[in-house]
Design goal:
The structure is a homodimer of 349-residue chains.
Chain A lengths: L7 H10 L8 E5 L1 H9 L8 E5 L10 H7 L4 H10 L5 E4 L3 H12 L9 E7 L4 E5 L9 H17 L8 E4 L10 H10 L8 E5 L2 H5 L4 E3 L2 H27 L2 H21 L7 E4 L4 E4 L6 H16 L2 H35 L1
Parallel strand pairs in A: 1-2, 3-10, 5-8, 6-7, 6-8
Antiparallel strand pairs in A: 4-5, 4-9, 9-10
Helix pairs in contact in A: 1-11, 3-5, 4-5, 6-7, 6-12
């Protein structure tokens, strides 16, 4: 029931997603009468759909803490409960982001080895696509959080984007080793001790996002949120300038008519609906947040992302990778201890 | 002697800046023989130029601390010394940013009431232009720093950009009052106690940069640096996509030929050389940093920015504004004290 155009857009989005999600069934949680009426209009979707009724929903401007305490019967809460109970493989919502994260964290809990979940998203770049996290779940992050984000981003890139050995970069104000604050310098040192080391590119800067210098961009939630929105804002500014330029003279208008086909391709490639669906990573359950203002096409993309994560066993893979990582970090710590012990013996001799 | 194309680009840039800087004289610091040879090629510039010779210069990759200690005879140091001694009204350099800030801070010192200088730059927006600071001088900032940045940005916007009452925004992850970390929430509360209060917009988000929601964007140096480079990178990505699109088919190429005039105007408006020149604000002297890779046109813009700041008495105005601000903050603190005193008396009764 969340988002600007629910439930119509949600049901229409599911119908579009149907073809990209083979053997998927849909569980709609919300106002039964409205959802059933909509399903009548989507005859292919109806037989693979179930509706769980609730009149309650989380308002778009509700405080997360209030939504968590008071919204036990809300459509958002019941949809997340369905993931916790195993009735659903994943949940997709276009509702209130803060409430969704708070409820998902409370109901699903974090995966073993993950201190805090992160919000991740896919960005278009000059070379293809990059996944960036965190985008706002954690305003301040320590080195451990950042290392865990790197693991989660890597597993996402492998399983959902299909990259064999994605490269990882830490977002910083310069690429030299001494740049930035303590947390990222510590995270960089820790990553060099892990199995991710060969794919760890080091520090990257803001302009590397659009260049696609790395496949996984790791940052704290404050910086990531500002960077993502700055990139989106700049992209919109350019689209607007382009529109004005093509309208600025008769010749330019004619030029547009000729180049229209080529520009339609560009528009498709940069369509924000293609990149709709922010993934909540690090939870014991798959949860994807759609933009509240998207349409059915955008929502179907968010569903497809969640479906891919679920069908590729995304969380099992994160769990496995974290176990490997922790073993490697423990071994590195043991080695450092042994070496310093040997060092002191030598000093005694 | 700094930047990729010095000293040629520097001398040529000064010649271009000459017309926009009435009654300006130029002091060139560096390799006398090379500079004199270049001045021969710019006959109108030569009579208003002086050359101060030094064979030393700061390498582009030198550590700031090393440049500060070892570079006492460097062209950068001597140029800043000339501002300190009053021989020059302002200094412009295309050299090593970290070294320039370290030397400028050491030689010029900060203005009274300013704890830390900040780097500011002008950005193109949908509505016109916005000034943003800090862009990397201070990775972590407390509320006092941010309030001082707001004052410096406001004075810059008034004196250099000519806005009567520029609006100020604090860059955050959301616009609601409870968003963000402590430092920005404190800075917002403090700004509401100052004479800037009527022009304080509150929190803004990354997408507000391109929208031009406010005239002055205040942020810490880490976030500002990432946001600026992200915006620049996204702009380049779009320019690149645009180029590819116009080349993707014969019709698109023809379309470009027709729309070329309109696109040349757009290119001029978005020309990064127009926005060249990062201002070091809060020092007892005017210091502007040009991009190292710019050309004479870009460098002339950096000179024009410095000239404008000097001829409008920029630093005197910051000093005055800070005095007013401090009086207002002191009055607010007194008032809060009085009120709590009255409160406790009432409680006793």
């Amino acid at each position: 029931m969340g988002g600007d155009h629910a439930p119509d857009m949600v049901v229409a989005g599911a119908d579009l997603a149907r073809e990209r999600c083979p053997n998927a069934d849909f569980l709609f949680v919300g106002d039964e009468a409205r959802i059933n009426a909509l399903l009548e209009r989507h005859p292919a979707l109806k037989p693979i759909s179930t509706v769980r009724h609730t009149p309650d929903f989380v308002a778009m401007d509700a405080k997360p803490s209030v939504a968590l305490r008071a919204g036990r019967n809300s459509s958002m809460r019941l949809a997340i409960d369905a993931v916790a109970s195993g009735d659903a493989a994943c949940v997709v919502s276009a509702g209130n982001t803060g409430a969704l994260m708070a409820i998902a964290k409370f109901v699903l809990k974090t995966l073993p080895g993950i201190d805090r979940p992160a919000i991740a998203s896919i960005l278009p770049t000059q070379r293809g696509e990059t996944v960036m996290l965190d985008l706002g779940a954690n305003l301040e992050c320590d080195a451990d959080n950042l290392v865990q984000f790197a693991v989660m981003g890597t597993v996402f890139s492998r399983t959902v984007l299909g990259l064999l050995n994605p490269t990882v970069g830490l977002l910083n104000v310069g690429s030299e080793e001494q740049k930035g604050h303590e947390q990222i310098r510590e995270a960089a040192a820790a990553l060099r001790q892990t199995p991710l080391a060969p794919y760890f590119h080091g520090f990257i800067e803001g302009n590397d996002l659009a260049l696609g210098t790395v496949d996984v961009v790791v940052t704290d939630g404050f910086t990531g949120n500002v960077a993502l929105k700055t990139a989106e804002g700049t992209a919109k500014l350019y689209a607007e300038f382009l529109r004005r330029t093509f309208r600025s003279s008769l010749l330019a208008k004619l030029g547009y008519l000729l180049a229209k086909g080529a520009f339609n391709k560009l528009r498709q490639r940069m369509d924000p609906r293609r990149y709709n669906g922010a993934m909540f990573l690090g939870l014991r359950g798959i949860c994807v947040k759609s933009h509240g203002g998207t349409d059915a096409v955008g929502f179907s993309n968010a569903i497809a992302v969640a479906f891919n994560m679920a069908s590729h066993g995304f969380n099992d893979k994160i769990r496995d990778q974290l176990a490997v990582l922790q073993a490697a970090l423990a071994a590195a710590a043991d080695k450092a201890r042994d070496e310093s012990a040997t060092g002191s013996e030598t000093a005694v001799q």
